[in-house]
User: Fold this.
Amino acid sequence: MNQSSFTWPGRIQNDPAHDLIVAYLTIDLQKSSKWTEELLQKIREVKSGLVSSWERTGNAYCLHLYPGHIEIEEDYAEETGGLIKVSLDDFEAAVIAWQAFIKK
Assistant:
């Protein structure tokens, strides 16, 4: 899958945080509609306050959801990268766009 062909409203090209979101979606969620729907459900639960936080360890990254932001950590690199924080709303927009992208 060509990562550069995926985008969402508000995506900033060549932004390290947004590039990491693309990497997370393509490597950890892949084209799984089940995993994508589960992630959207967890985003809604965190945003609504139903749960205070949520995390998922995937193939290459560890994702943490919090009410105001998300954190993505690289798990596969010999030297782990810095923790990347993105607003929960920006991440949700990316996941919604990903869901549409993988349905094509």
Remarks:
- The longest helix spans residues 33-48.
- The first strand starts at residue 54 and ends at 57.
